[in-house]
Amino acid sequence: MEYHMKVERKTIHFDVNRNKTVSYRDVTWEEIRRSRDAELAQTDWRAVKDRTMSQDWKDHRTALRDLPQDHEEANDAADNWPEAPE
Q: Are 67 and 77 in contact (CB under 8 A)?
């Protein structure tokens, strides 16, 4: 089983009257890289020599590796975390 390590910024709160408040926290590049590295490590088994990796998984892993160069801010990288293929 694979766990996807997306960095969540959004928090939803409900008060006693069921009023909803949404807040966003700032994330660091360290958090992004740690989550990205963990997700890549969990999907490394797909990249072994005796297995053929689908193009969707190749693209996903490339998108994870490219997060720091594709986004100027860590918050943008977290908000645009690539979805894993099924």
A: yes
Taken in order 56, 59, 65, 70, is the CA torsion positive or negative? negative
* Per-residue pLDDT at 35 exceeds 80: yes
Cα-Cα-Cα-Cα dihedral sign, residues 83, 51, 55, 71: positive
Sequence spans of domains, the chain: 27-86
Q: pTM higher than 0.85 for the full model?
A: no
Report the sign of the C-alpha dihedral through residues 66, 71, 74, 76, in that order: negative
What are residue 28's phi and psi, to 5 degrees? -105, 160
